[in-house]
Amino acid sequence: MTYEELLTQTALADDRFIVMTAENRALVRNIPGKLGKRFIDTGITEQTMIGAAAGLALRGRIPVVHALASFLTMRAFEFVRTDAGIPNLPIKLSSFIPGFLSDGNGPTHQAVEDISLMRGIPNMTVFAPADEQDLVMMLPEIWKHPHPSYVRINTRKTDHQHSPFKLGKAEIVSKGEDVTILTYGLLFEQALIAVEILKNEGLSVGLINLRSLKPVDEQAILEATRESALTITLEDHFVTGGLYSIVAEVLLKHCQTAKVIPMALKDKWFKPSLLPNVLEHEGFTGKQIAEKILGYNTNAYQPEISIPQFSE
Fold this sequence. Notes:
Helix content is 37%, strand content 19%. The chain has twelve helices and twelve strands.
């Protein structure tokens, strides 16, 4: 099932659902004719869309709103904070082309601080599925939850079969004594490649899909950092405020220390290009990730990286 199919099915079965967009229909292009007046396009007005969604939510509706990640989180930030976060309304933010998925765009269209911004809002929940299967598995529980939510939409495919989703719980793909990679979203597919390369080099490797970032699975983080000699946080986000910061906060809260190395964007935006070139240039292919951890080059094969279905 695709994101659009799931949303259509959900909205047709429950008339509380309203689908909204700020002139960003790529994910929902077939829905207007099926929902009629329960589909609302406000135009390029992200603030207006959030304000209208709040009004609908106050009247018992569940708005699922769509916009480019950079503008949904930054242009509309005050409205999200004030109209969704403070009153704790069930407004569901579907964030389009977040992180490296905005591959061909420059800094103004790159949402690489969105996790930091959204998790800082009281009552807001934050999620980043690893692929489309993960996304479709997660959304029913996210949509029925009474709090506002921010979801990094990811419709890419992987061969990984995900375990069932539970709010606030990580997916423990594997455990390792030498190194554990903590990641979320798009880079999960490259983490899978890195894990295989590291295993072939003789390492015991763990991999955790932290698809629920707020609430976060503190126990999974604590156990991984205790049981592995090295922990890697891997994310297409600025190093400040994202997963590396989350891990640091959890460790400090529980008076635990660990060797943690971040692989993230350090005070710079990424170079716009097609996704395979972005990952290669910024050092986030599976092979590059593994070699950074090993400290030496290998003869490992880097599988071809598919170009995203959507681009802006």
